[in-house]
Amino acid sequence: MTSKKRSWTDWLKLIIILLLILLIVRMFTFNPLIVEGPSMQPTLMNDDRIIVDKISLLFKEPERFDIVVFHTTSRKNYIKRIIGLPGETIEYKDDILYVNNKQVDEPFITSVKDQLPLNARYTTNFTLLEDIPGGYNKVPDGHVFVLGDNRPNSTDSRRLGYIPTNQITGIARFTYWPLNEFGLIK
After folding, report:
1. Among 4, 39, 54, 56, which one carries the catalytic annotation?
2. Which CATH superfamily is domain 32-184 in?
3. 80 is known as an active-site residue
4. Distance (Å, whole) CA 62 – CA 80
5. Of 60, 80, 93, 113, which residue is the catalytic one?
6. How many Å apart are CA 115 and CA 6, to the nearest integer?
7. For residue range 45-79, what is the model confidence (pLDDT) as tens digits?
8. Domain ranges in the chain?
9. Which of 73, 90, 97, 144 has the most CB atoms around its CB within 10 Å?
10. Which residues contact 109 (CB under 8 A, 6 or more apart)?
């Protein structure tokens, strides 16, 4: 009887240890997330299931066009694409992105822009100094400038202002649901 009892307690200890390991891995490396809302369409749709990579941020800063998850309040996470990095000027004019006065292509929204009527704008014109909260002409140190891919319907840096890099919790890397979207996020 004692060997059965010992075997049962050994299994219980093993299960508890495995659950703790899984919890630690999930907390510090990868996290599943459900996309809420249309702000990242066409790249990510409402209710898409994605994997957010947390560990990369320990080794390097996020880069332009990374899709990041960040906190703006203790209860609300946002998912947006980094457009501007610290020290850069960002301007949108006639539906073209300019970073440090140089045109930058955004291939992830080309298909949507191509469907617009002639002379229609997907992204409204703006400059950092005149139109973005904070009164800066460059993205401040320790911050990024983010936009949703669905520019007409996104709460992003145009409204929220600059996002502190220490509020970024991860980088969206992989879609696992729906199955027809299974794969790396571009």
Report:
1. 39
2. Umud Fragment, subunit A (2.10.109.10)
3. yes
4. 12
5. 80
6. 68
7. 999 999 999 988 888 999 999 999 998 776 788 99
8. 32-184
9. 144
10. 42, 122, 149, 151
